[in-house]
Amino acid sequence: MVGGGRDAFIGAVHRKAIALDGQAELVAGALSSSPEKARESGRALWLADGRNHGDWRALLDDELKRPPEERIDFVSIVTPNHLHLPVAQAFVEAGFHVVCDKPLVHTAAQAQALVAAVARQGTVFAVTYNYTGYPMVREAREIVRSGRLGEIRKVVVEYNQGWLATRLEGEGNKQAEWRSDPARSGAAGAIGDIGSHAENLVATVTGLEIESLCADLGALVPGRPLDDDGSVLLRFQGGARGVLIASQVNTGLENDLRLRVSGTLGTLVWRQERPSELWHLPHDGPRRVLTRGSPWLGDAARRASRLPSGHPEGFIEAFANVYGGVFADIRARLAGRPAEALEADYPRIEEGARGVRFIERVVASSRSDAKWTAW
Amino acid sequence: MVGGGRDAFIGAVHRKAIALDGQAELVAGALSSSPEKARESGRALWLADGRNHGDWRALLDDELKRPPEERIDFVSIVTPNHLHLPVAQAFVEAGFHVVCDKPLVHTAAQAQALVAAVARQGTVFAVTYNYTGYPMVREAREIVRSGRLGEIRKVVVEYNQGWLATRLEGEGNKQAEWRSDPARSGAAGAIGDIGSHAENLVATVTGLEIESLCADLGALVPGRPLDDDGSVLLRFQGGARGVLIASQVNTGLENDLRLRVSGTLGTLVWRQERPSELWHLPHDGPRRVLTRGSPWLGDAARRASRLPSGHPEGFIEAFANVYGGVFADIRARLAGRPAEALEADYPRIEEGARGVRFIERVVASSRSDAKWTAW
Amino acid sequence: MVGGGRDAFIGAVHRKAIALDGQAELVAGALSSSPEKARESGRALWLADGRNHGDWRALLDDELKRPPEERIDFVSIVTPNHLHLPVAQAFVEAGFHVVCDKPLVHTAAQAQALVAAVARQGTVFAVTYNYTGYPMVREAREIVRSGRLGEIRKVVVEYNQGWLATRLEGEGNKQAEWRSDPARSGAAGAIGDIGSHAENLVATVTGLEIESLCADLGALVPGRPLDDDGSVLLRFQGGARGVLIASQVNTGLENDLRLRVSGTLGTLVWRQERPSELWHLPHDGPRRVLTRGSPWLGDAARRASRLPSGHPEGFIEAFANVYGGVFADIRARLAGRPAEALEADYPRIEEGARGVRFIERVVASSRSDAKWTAW
Amino acid sequence: MVGGGRDAFIGAVHRKAIALDGQAELVAGALSSSPEKARESGRALWLADGRNHGDWRALLDDELKRPPEERIDFVSIVTPNHLHLPVAQAFVEAGFHVVCDKPLVHTAAQAQALVAAVARQGTVFAVTYNYTGYPMVREAREIVRSGRLGEIRKVVVEYNQGWLATRLEGEGNKQAEWRSDPARSGAAGAIGDIGSHAENLVATVTGLEIESLCADLGALVPGRPLDDDGSVLLRFQGGARGVLIASQVNTGLENDLRLRVSGTLGTLVWRQERPSELWHLPHDGPRRVLTRGSPWLGDAARRASRLPSGHPEGFIEAFANVYGGVFADIRARLAGRPAEALEADYPRIEEGARGVRFIERVVASSRSDAKWTAW
Taking every annotated instance into account, which residue ranges of this chain make up the domain Gfo/Idh/MocA-like oxidoreductase N-terminal (chains A, B, C, D) (predicted)? Predict the structure, then answer.
């Protein structure tokens, strides 16, 4: 693991997601860009001294020196955004499988370079768009893709939080600091941090491709160099319309990601804060509330579930489902066979690259006086 | 009453709202543009023959011939949109108080003429933006206006229905027919029919004024001459941002009007389909669910409530609250005194005119290649 | 109308329910047991002086003196409980149709006498168990009665309020005063006032008959002579089990009547505070949320609905549905024909009598050391 | 770990809960009563051969032979109920810390013997009443215990499921088989399996002690030797009343454990299926919805939470919180200091013994003709 030391948020989530099902174990790390903090964090996690590094290059060098059967099977990159590129590039070039947090990199050009490197190496590269790991998101995907909603007409996705409603970045909050710093976060704030999840959710569930978009980004908290609020009109290939809203200044909202997809035959509604329910509103009968763990769900949802219905699963399980797909893919490769689609069900690097493209296009549109910015 | 005969929808709602509190009685009408249907409808409502007219001009003439104490106190205009103007103009010019359905008229110029006429006559003129009659909308208005949300930053309003997801207008549905006919409905479809409610809700609760907007209207059901779906980015004077979505093709949605207003100190969330709840998310404490009928609500909400909390009130009560404000205003005038603000709490003709302006600006923006269309 | 003057609660609800659909009009009354308050209340409701009486006997005498075509079509009795019997008896004996609030009378013996009187006269006699007027309760009844839940196994009904969590009766609250006074309220407090609604709801929806019961009533607020909280175990004929809970001391609860009926093929869940939704949980598929106004509902629910789905109807509409059934029955009789079941869909005097029996049995059980008290 | 092999349900939950936070590791086991299945299950979990036993006695013997620093720190007993006693007794007598599933044992006498053994050994003994591990249950406990609800008057707890609505035990379902077999499950079915959770939830949150109870247990699915449905009236010391309902035949219900506690100053409502919300209804202000992860929660709830609010945690996290308390207690003992109350926050053997007593008293009451059975 690279990144994820003390004061980090998402690294601990990755570790719990990895540990949950007992399929993998953390054995080596460079857990912070501060060597001292890195080692201290590693010790707290019982890393062996010889595999607890102060720098990610040292980790990589050490791994390469080890015989293949002792090496890590994959690396998780959970640093702030600006480090994704150099770390990922180095590990991919060295032939390691990679799990990388989102947004993948800062620019579409960087993303393309990384996609090319992965293609050359033929390695596994997952991007942790964790929300699509929820069973009921996979059920939604199956319902839409199988045509049960008919032709999609309208998609509304919102991802709203309130935690940046004040200038936390000026009060010593590490999470707020790097997210509001263009050098570390990239060209976008909220639209990169959470808008990219919203984009991925829409693409995963519907398969629709954005044709053009019209964005209005703003820094509603005075003095913030990056957007903390954005609204985007979407036009999809084939004629569907959409709206994407992402904001981190909605005081009192927690992690309110929600999706509505309307087609000629019905509508689906899902909310991340109640992830086990998927509402399906068919045009010709009563509303249906599909619940995780039910026997009548599709394969993808059933595979992504651990407990009987009514026993709440949450964020970590969804995250673990992304890892589960990665593990299955790695195992299949070790066994010399291609993984099945439902087995290796995780977001690929191409999705990460599309997400970076999305951020670029949104930022371009927001700066433009033209109504529509083509994809 | 003008309009509201057999096959009409909103006329019956007006009548129930008028009857509910026993403050007024329907005594005369011209209930349809078809004389025969008008009279038949009037008879079904026990109108006396002499006051059951086949044409609204006959109704007006008859009323003017009666001695003042026998005349109607006000007229309700509940026809399709294109008739609002001539009927309203005639009754206003004749000195009658008027309650008129929305959208007020087809063009901003017509609206200004009507506003001027009302100003000349000094009569009561209400526009039935009925959703702002809900007690918890009035509570939301009081919370925002009193500063308890701080400075408003973001407003999201959605009004989604599904009933026009197929071409009902081609299957003999009268409601669908006139709404999708530009001659009767005006320049807009969904954005006029329900988007105007959404605009009024935002303005009522927040008092914010739109500075510019960027709209994408579409007819997502093929062959429809007017929009059935629209999404609008909003910029308000003072810097707040917003999104307004109105659609009648969200299969399976019923009458899903919902509002979220976020300020520096908190967020309010309200849904028309659960009208008795208002969620208040303060920045410094747990979520609060305010319920209709509670003693800790403000004056406006308490006055607008009839039953103890937990005894559901609904759409008709909200509608009746608009009428209640009109009745109070008329009574105050009869008593020769000005009505208090909370007593005569109903949407005025100026709001109706602003709504028409909104529709015009949205349609103009939707046809424009420029990102922002000024108000 | 007898009762329902100033300071009363339910009288005004009856009047709004009567007025809502324009099918009947209040023309005469004796609105309070205080002659002065009665007349003052009548004037406020625009009763003609000659029909605004200070005493219910005067009202009855006056009506009998009028020619039949001028007489009231029916009388609504909305007094405190202890007056139901004398007033109802007198009007029934005089041949009037009656709508009477619940609980019907104080004792089962009184109830039987009244049932017999109504049978002799052949008049309409409705008891305003208003909650069964909700469309989705009627849908629940249809689902259960048609066998779609299979054999019923378990029924849980709760009716909880919080308004009597303090000794309001000692603070001048008229509603609390008579309800906590055995002379006016009868042998039971909460179990009579709201438990009787719960019993009626169960019987209406399921048709099950109670075989034996085991009750624990308590006055949880010190110094109260009647129960303010009760819990009852139920055994139904045929083997189903049940629990009925009624409490008026659940601080913060409003009017929380809810029903769950479980059968071999599915479960139904309904809550009065969200009356437009009926949850149906079939054993072999996803949960279904049936909503008022949907085309796929049964006849009884569709007839009981006024507005399209998503336009909230509430307590008054449900109340008005009871009156609508009474009006239909009276009209059918005037037309010399029997009313159809779905047309004259209202709670009869036999249900009122059963409710009184229920209260008696619960009180007896609560006082008994034996576990089961037979019906 | 003893039990929890292939086909088991709760064993895998224990393992995920143990793994989640990286504080402990499964190193030895006797995972089934079938030696072959035990070893096969252990291999699937990467147990070393020398610690993968076919029988729990072999596991115990082997551990005792190892030097203390190599021994397991504690054993988790996750077998069917009838094995809890012999396994627990043996490990306690040998000086091991124990985590045991509920219900603890079959009889109150057995429970007392085990309590005495633990007292003699001074070891840690936890009973996995996992639902009280939810942060918002701990918040509820803090609210009640701190007096913020005033004096408790009424408690209603329901735990309803539907999975045993048919005779699954006759169709090869292992979970259903042992639960409906008195030899393995004990004297009670649903009331033992899930009613005991409900009892523990009430006791944990309120601290109230049952004075007497009145139960009606039934086997509503024909042919079942143990109850699958039960309802119990409760009287608590000090005067509060309660109702406990537990059923496994509520078709379509999933894992619907819910609690309502009403006091003189307010009411709390919690539902296991939405575990992150705790509704608090104070008598003097609007409803409050407390959410997991909020800074204004009490210490116990904040310690029991891993992720920011709005990032759903679930069943496994609650389970892991029980284990977290056990780990803290063991660590404190290793460090030679007493653990703080909030640190070692887990259900003790005394709670397990009380739960067994509860089951006995409920079964006795259900068989009795007397209304009240004393505790």
Answer: 2-129
Pairing between β-strand D373-374 and β-strand D287-291 as defined by DSSP bridges: unpaired
Q: What is the pLDDT along chain A (375 residues), one digit of tens a residue?
A: 999 998 888 999 999 999 999 999 999 999 999 999 999 999 999 999 999 999 999 999 999 999 999 999 999 999 999 999 999 999 999 999 999 999 999 999 999 999 999 999 999 999 999 999 999 999 999 999 999 999 999 999 999 999 999 999 989 898 888 888 899 888 899 999 999 999 999 999 999 999 999 999 999 999 999 999 999 999 999 999 999 999 999 999 999 999 999 999 999 999 999 999 999 999 999 999 999 999 999 999 999 999 999 999 999 999 999 999 999 999 999 999 999 989 999 999 999 999 999 999 999 999 999 999 999
SS3 A177: helix
pLDDT per residue as tens digits for the range B300-313: 999 999 999 999 99
Whether residue A291 and residue C288 make contact (CB cut-off 8 A), yes or no, is no
Hey, are the CB atoms on A288 and C289 less than 8 Å from each other? yes
pLDDT, one tens digit per residue, over D99-131 is 999 999 999 999 999 999 999 999 999 999 999
**Neighbors of chain C with 3 or more C-beta pairs under 8 Å:** A, B, D
Is a pLDDT exceeding 90 seen at residue D216?
Answer: yes
| DSSP H or E stretch at residue A15 | helix A10-20
Reply yes or no on whether the pLDDT at D16 is more than 90.
Answer: yes
Chain B closest-CA separation from residue D321 CA (Å): 23
Residue D74: which of D26, D31, D8 has the closest Cα?
D26
**What three-state secondary structure class fits A344?**
coil
**Out of B195-199, C175-179, C200-204, least confident range:** C175-179
| Structure-token match 């609980």, residue found | C103
Copy the structure tokens of residue D228: 């699958």
Which residues of chain B fall below pLDDT 50?
A: none
Place of tokens 């039934």: D218
Give C121-134 pLDDT, tens digit per residue: 999 999 999 999 99
Considering only the beta carbons, identify the residue of A291, A306, A314 that sits closest to D313. Answer: A314
Give the mutation candidate from A256, A315, A321 for the D interface (greatest D CB count, under 10 A). Answer: A315
Contact check, Cβ <8 Å, B20/C15 = no
Q: Provide the shortest C-alpha distance from residue A102 to chain B (in Å).
A: 26
- By the 8 A CB rule, do D254 and D158 touch? no
Collect all residues of chain C within an 8 Å Cβ-Cβ radius of residue B171: none
d(CA C337, CA C343): 12
What's the first-to-final CA gap in chain D, in angstroms? 34
Decide if C273 and B312 are in contact by the 8 Å CB cutoff. Answer: yes
Q: CA A245 to CA A259: how far, in whole Å?
A: 11
Q: Are C245 and C160 in contact (CB under 8 A)?
A: yes
DSSP letters spanning B257-315: EEEEEEESSEEEEEETTSTTEEEEEETTS-EEEEETT-TTS-HHHHHT--S-TTS---H
Question: What is the SS3 assignment for A18-39?
Answer: HHHCCCCCCCCEECCCCHHHHH
Q: Which of D259, D35, D310 is nearest to D143 (CA)?
A: D259
Which domains are delineated in chain A? Answer: 10-130 (3.40.50.720), 134-307+351-367 (3.30.360.10)
- Chain B CB contacts of C21 under 8 Å are 16, 19
Cβ contact B289–D290 (<8 Å): no
Give the distance from CA A203 to its chain's centroid. 12
Going by the DSSP 8-state scheme, the letter that residue C192 receives in this structure is I
Question: How far apart, in whole angstroms, are the C-alpha atoms of residue B142 and residue B147?
Answer: 9
Q: Within 13 Å of residue B82, how many CA atoms lie on the same side as its CB? A: 12
Helices (H), C76-173: 84-93, 108-121, 135-145
C216·D253 Cβ contact <8 A: no
